Amino acid sequence: MLSFRDKINFTDPEIIRKIAVSTGFFDEEDVKVTVALAKEALKGQSNSPENFNFLFAEDDGKTCAYACFGQVPESISTFELHWLSTLNEFRGQGIGKKLIEKFLEEVKKQGGTKVFIKTSGIPQYEPTRRFYESCGFSCEARLQDYYDEGNDCLIYSMRLNQN
Question: In what order do the strands lie in the sheet with 114-120?
Fold first, then answer.
């Protein structure tokens, strides 16, 4: 049975590392960053002006996916999804989509009215882009050569209905 939690615990940084590595999408630096954010969230402090929140999906008590998000600094009601990852053995089961739904509910609770997601434009990330589109996001901008020459940043967005 799938359940969700929004409290980070002391085992989560290593679980996040395992999940991120399992996907084959994130390089070593990406993994280090997401684990460091989890450790900061666990301490309840951040050296960044951003507030990083985590949501976890658990299948029969096993953490199988996570999302990291926060309000865009200096914005009133705009949020960004920084990381979303599902343990490889659980991919394709709809868990990511349910986690996005839970994430959007949480953003609404926090007063969010618009959400942004950045992802790579290289072919490896085509399934990621299709996933975001299937969740209702649309590509709002393309920043050419953002990550590297030939690796554009695509910015997806969704305006949230506050009903």
Answer: 2-5, 53-59, 62-71, 78-86, 114-120, 151-159, 138-148
* Two structure tokens written together for 61: 């008590």
3-state class of 53 per DSSP?
strand
Which alpha helices (DSSP H) does 4-161 contain, by range?
12-23, 28-43, 95-109, 126-134
Report d(CA 108, CA 132) in Å as an integer.
18
Domain range spanning residue 91? 2-159
H/E stretch holding 4: strand 2-5
**pLDDT reported for residue 51:** 73
**What gap in Å lies between CA 130 and CA 134, rounded to an integer?**
6
Summarised one tens digit per residue, pLDDT across range 13-36 is 999 999 999 998 888 999 999 999
Which 8-state DSSP code applies to residue 97? Answer: H
Residues with pLDDT less than 50, the chain: 46-49
We report the CATH number of the domain holding residue 111 as 3.40.630.30
